[in-house]
Amino acid sequence: MKKIIVSLALLAVFGTAFGQKKVVRSAENNLKKGNYEEALTEINEAIQNSETSGDPNTFFVKGKILTKAYEVDSSNTESTLKYGIDAFEVFKKAKEMDNGGKITKEIDKDVLADGLMLPPGLRGEGIPWLKYLSYAKALDAYEQEDMMMAYKFFKLTADIDPTDTTAVYNTAYTAAFNEDFATAKEYYKILIDNDEYVNPAAYFGLLGIVLEQEQNNEEALTILRDAQKDYPNEKIFSEYEISILIKLDRLDEAKTSIEESLEKDPRDPNNLLRYGYLWEQQGDLDKALEYYKKSAEVKDDFFDGNFYAGALLVDMAGKIVNEVNNMNDADWEKYSDSKLKEADDIYRESLKYFEKAIEINPDDLRALEPMYGIYNRLKQPEKAEAIDKRIQELKGGGN
């Protein structure tokens, strides 16, 4: 009698397990028929039951159902996205339970062969297919100029496959566009840490956030030094480093960096200009003027070199004029004429640089305004009047 009772109990257990597996098969059938809500209800029931909740196939089936719902929902809204996120989490759960077995191989089965999409019966229904759908939805949202949803679909794509550098870059870019700068930085750093990604674009994106949004010069300096190690031929990184060192008033470091750069390229106008600026900051105006002039000489259309040379010459002439104004009567009688002639000669020299500057950039008020004063001082009223007219036009006061 006891044997009969035990047998009946076993039948009950097997019957329950068989019943739950039948529910899983029914969910798969409903998936094939397109009855996604019924399929999801059934598979959730199986996941809640102890007899099938430990089977990785149960979770694989749920992942396939969620992925199909994700695929057919063309609205590409937050609710669509949730299907995709949930599917990815379920697939990961199934792989964890399967521990490299048959289900894992099915979940990781590719959707492409030699770059071509496989037909539905042959391609995978797991994670690679989910990634493919996510990227397609991201592109669709981007084309529709829905930058927030583009960002979220790109992010899911990148989370599915962090080695996909295009998806990771697009995630960082669209995150920054949507002012989620913390996420943008995170994904730019993922690219930087990827040895297979050989493109300075990630550094540029990261620096844009750190310098423009966070205004963190110290962090930018660290990033720039890493960038120079990874991309030693990108001169712009060393130029940025020098500019930041100057901003941070770390002039000795900046000087060393510029000198190293000028050894490699002694005709780099930007570094010649910065070197002149460093000498000016240290009070050696003759040395500063030498390098400002060099920067203008090596590049014919270099506005900054001409402007800085002209501006420094004006400052030097102005100091002489102030010196004359502060002379006592005896010194004034003795030295004023020669000193004022020296100042006027320097003003004339400054004009050569300002005139070249406005030839390069005719609308730059920084160059035009001192020219007006110099022409007046040198008694060239027609030129002064023409410059004044141009200034007024640019300021909106012309006829």
Describe the 3D structure.
This protein is mainly α and 399 residues long. Among the domains are: 7-161, Serine Threonine Protein Phosphatase 5, Tetratricopeptide repeat (Alpha Horseshoe), CATH 1.25.40; 171-266, Serine Threonine Protein Phosphatase 5, Tetratricopeptide repeat (Alpha Horseshoe). Helix content is 77%, strand content 1%. Strands 1-2 form a two-stranded antiparallel sheet. Helix 1 packs parallel to helix 3, helix 12 packs antiparallel against helix 13 and helix 17 crosses helix 18. It is elongated, with a radius of gyration of 36 Å. Mean pLDDT is 90; it is low at 8-18.
**Helix fraction by DSSP (H/I, runs of at least 4):** over 70%
Rounded mean pLDDT is: 90
Q: Strand tally, please?
A: 2
Tell me the radius of gyration: 36 Å
- Order of adjacent strands in the largest pleated sheet: 1-2
